[in-house]
Amino acid sequence: DKKRREDAELRNQAENLAYSTDKVLAENGDKVPDDVKAEVTAAVGELRTALAGDDIEAVKAKNAALAAVSQKIGEAIYKADADSQAAAADGAPQDTPSASSDEDVVDAEIVDEDEAK
Question: Global pTM?
Answer without folding.
Answer: 0.65
